[in-house]
Amino acid sequence: MIEALAVEDHAVVRSGLVALLSGELGIQVVGQAADGGAALAEAERLRPGVVLLDIDSTSICPAQTASPSPPRSPKSCPTAAP
């Protein structure tokens, strides 16, 4: 069973994503978060196998959350291109 955490700042999109994933065999959505702080807290608490992260979110840096020990308060986000 794949345990997933869904992170999306738009509630309607997040609930749709959760509904879609919940209908799939082998996937269990174990948590949801609307912003970066909640995402980090939930990921630490739940330890999901997968985090589905909105890469357009301004409240969290996807590159930093992908590290084994993401910072609690990311100050800057490295980007590949300007």
TrEMBL record:
Coiled coil: none
Superkingdom of this protein's organism: Bacteria
Classification via SUPFAM superfamilies: CheY-like
Region feature Disordered, mapped onto this chain: 62-82
InterPro entries, per the entry: CheY-like_superfamily (IPR011006), Sig_transdc_resp-reg_receiver (IPR001789)
Name by which UniProt lists this protein: Response regulatory domain-containing protein
One Pfam family of this chain: Response_reg
Modification type 4-aspartylphosphate: residues: 54
